[in-house]
Amino acid sequence: MHCLRCNHNNPATIMYCQKCGQKLDMTADEIAGSLIAKAQDERIKSTEFYSKQVLFFSILIFVVSLTLVILAGGAPSDVYVMPSASSGAKFVELGEKGKWDPPFERELCPFGVKRK
Known about the structure:
It is a single chain. The protein has 116 residues and is mainly alpha-helical. The protein has one helix spanning 28-72; strands at residues 81-82, 92-93. The longest helix is centred in the middle third of the chain and has 45 residues, at 28-72.
């Protein structure tokens, strides 16, 4: 609330000017309006602060993950590893360039099989 004598900006909750001591004539509506305006300004400032923090950390996480992907260089080109189904078993290594030849013979199934 501005003082009428010295034009000093005072908090809305005091009765006398902090600079010159003049009694401030305020109505309840003026006090409520100034308190609401102050609360809205504080909310806007805190929202801006937290949105800047979120943006900064999002960019930081993106840059770190991009750096890790570049430094990792991808998977090895000549070894293909496939996890096994059970928890105690070891990994299965595939042969050269992903070809896996099982130790058993494959049965051929003709394409023209008719159902009864």
